[in-house]
Design goal:
About 45% of the residues lie in helices and about 15% in strands. It has about 325 residues and is of the alpha/beta class. The strands form 3 sheets. Strands 3-4-6-7-8-9-12-13 form an 8-stranded parallel β-barrel, surrounded by 7 helices. It has a two-stranded antiparallel sheet with strand order 1-2. A two-stranded antiparallel sheet has the order 10-11. Strand 3, helix 1 and strand 4 form a beta-alpha-beta unit. Helix 10 runs parallel beside helix 11 and helix 11 packs across helix 13. Bound molecules: flavin mononucleotide (FMN). The site of flavin mononucleotide (FMN) has 24 residues, from strand 6 and helix 12.
Length: about 325
């Protein structure tokens, strides 16, 4: 019997496949289907800072203080109805999933600035969440904003949220950080017990005819695993936090690669949205078959076997690989 168990954020999980934040947690039926198919835990869709502020008196506060850019930012938001679940409904959904499911439920807050909205971290804990994922989705567009200031603000936010809760905290972050290992290490020092690699930034396109920006959400493919795979394998063993890999996990082999790189869990969203919640069961069966065939007894035995921990000069190693890959093209023609 293959031992599939793993731990993540101190939670005992029956296997390393976790349903990543997605609309599948908005409905009890689909959350139940995820559990039945074998998902080890569910990360809920995010409650956004903007949603909370929108609903609270803070909106008046910001508006009366003449924060034009803030009120303009609010005007970009979808209509209230499009959120479907307001902050209070979000908390009710956490409680409902906790009551109806046995697997751990991880709440998700999505925000970047300090402020009253962070009290929802505590509320999500009180609603019963087993852990909280903080998503730091932010695209810096202001040339005067220094990366050190942005990073410092994000670290402070993590520290504030951590001090407000007793459940474990993970942070979902961007891959576009100049010195990612240093930032990750500071996030861990600030209280992040898990790092979720990475946020998948949606990429807008242009409609040349209408001169409009096209906002489309395209689901990922397995190709996209390479970015988080590289970083999990670089960070494994160097950062005092559990690593979760998200982006591009579609097959059993993708999930096995995530574990071999050093991830405690592989998170899935696109695969489940495309092929249905039950598709997780087939992945688990195939993972088991693969592990038995290759004589692995447990997930923990496999974890980190492909990490870069034992490479003495990882940056030089990466440059050498880059040179090799470029020159291999010449060999082909
Ligand atoms: C329709 C959809 C909704 C999502 N909603 C959230 C969300 O609310 N919060 C969040 O942190 N990530 C959200 N994500 C991102 C996923 O959790 C995941 O990190 C990303 O899609 C990459 O994983 P994948 O390749 O398995 O799709 C969403 C993704 C999709 C496709």
């Amino acid at each position: 019997m293959t031992d599939f168990t793993t731990t993540y954020l101190g939670l005992e999980l029956k296997n390393p496949l976790v349903a990543s934040a997605s609309p599948l947690s908005k409905k009890l039926e689909s959350a139940k289907r995820l559990e039945e198919a074998g998902a080890a835990a569910i990360v809920m869709y995010s409650l956004f800072e903007e949603q909370i502020i929108h609903e609270s008196l803070e909106l008046d506060h910001f508006l009366t203080r003449g924060k034009d850019s803030f009120s303009e930012a609010l005007s970009y938001l979808p209509e209230a109805g499009a959120y479907r679940l307001t902050p209070d409904k979000y908390l009710k959904q956490v409680s409902l999933l906790k009551r109806e499911l046995k697997i751990p439920i991880i709440g998700s807050l999505n925000g970047v600035s300090k402020g009253g909205w962070t009290r929802y971290a505590r509320r999500i804990e009180e609603a019963g969440a087993d852990a909280l994922e903080l998503n730091l989705y932010y695209l810096a567009t202001d040339p005067s904003l220094k990366s050190e200031h942005l990073e410092a603000a994000q670290i402070e936010l993590v520290s504030d949220i951590k001090s407000a809760i007793t459940i474990p905290l993970s942070v979902k972050l961007s891959p576009y950080i100049t010195s990612l290992p240093n930032f990750c290490s500071r996030l861990a020092e600030a209280g992040a017990q898990g790092l979720v690699l990475f946020n998948r930034f949606y990429q807008p396109d242009f409609d040349l005819q209408e001169l409009e920006i096209i906002h489309t959400l395209e689901l990922s493919t397995s190709e996209e695993i390479r970015l988080p795979l590289r970083w999990v394998s670089i960070l494994y063993g160097k950062i005092n936090a559990d690593l979760a890999l998200t982006s591009g996990v579609h097959t059993a082999k993708d999930a096995l690669k995530a574990v071999m790189a050093g991830a405690k869990v592989a998170m899935l969203a696109s695969k489940l949205l495309r092929d249905g919640e039950q598709s997780i069961a087939a992945l688990l069966n195939e993972m088991e078959w693969w592990m038995e065939t290759h004589e692995y007894e447990s997930i923990s035995q496999m974890r980190g076997s492909m990490c870069q921990k034992f490479v003495r000069e990882p940056s030089a190693f990466e440059r050498a690989n880059y040179m090799k890959i470029l020159s291999s093209w010449r060999d082909l023609v």
